[in-house]
Amino acid sequence: MIERIFLGLGSNLDDSVAQITTAFEHLRSHAELDDLVLSPLYASPPMGPQDQPDFVNAALQLNTSISPEALLKTCKSIENIMGRQPAAHWGPRLIDIDILLYGDQIMETENLNIPHSGMRDRSFVLYPLADLDKALEVPGMGTLASMIEALGTSDIRQL
């Protein structure tokens, strides 16, 4: 069955805009990922230690019939191909590709939480998602609009 998926892309190292673009191109070239639409790019301060560059983030909508686990493997493979190295929690990232939503599924495993567990508290996730689908319903969390309203003022800026 074909599912509508949303991914989060982020980078704050080595020309972050180029890193997001490269990740998008890798995903677009994957034979089992279709109808990819990239949100506008946003910049925001890092969540963790502030002694690192601002992040550039985007959301990506796509359709696929591969499993969430296979999609996660694809995302991690692309991160590795692009040169991502292990980093400190909330530290600098060359590229980060997260599965935010996989259709209307809710799942929690050792390696995968869908919907992404931290998304409701992250303007750099919610605002790009809203650019793709303002009326989005997030399974188990409510509407995207209500999450943005609850988040309040944000220091995110569209590039």
| Gyration radius, in Å | 15 Å
Per CATH, the class reads Alpha Beta
Q: Termini distance?
A: 35 Å
Which class do the helix and strand fractions yield? alpha+beta
Question: What this model shows, in words?
Answer:
With 159 residues, the chain is an alpha+beta fold. The chain has one domain: Alpha-Beta Plaits. Helices cover 28% and strands 28% of the residues. The strands form 3 sheets. Strands 1, 2, 3, 4, 5 and 10 form a 6-stranded antiparallel beta sheet that branches. It has a two-stranded antiparallel ribbon with strand order 6-7. Strands 8-9 form a two-stranded antiparallel sheet. A hairpin with a 4-residue loop joins strand 6 and strand 7. Helix 3 runs antiparallel to helix 4 (144-151). The longest helix has 14 residues, at 68-81. The N and C termini lie far apart (35 Å).
Short description:
The protein is an alpha+beta fold and 159 residues long.
Q: What are the defining features of this structure?
A:
alpha+beta, 6-stranded antiparallel β-sheet, 28% helix, two-stranded antiparallel sheet
SSE layout:
Blueprint: E1 3-11, H1 16-28, E2 33-38, E3 42-44, E4 55-64, H2 68-81, E5 96-102, E6 107-108, E7 113-114, H3 123-132, E8 137-138, E9 142-143, H4 144-151, E10 157-158
Antiparallel strand pairs: 1-4, 1-5, 2-4, 3-4, 3-10, 6-7, 8-9
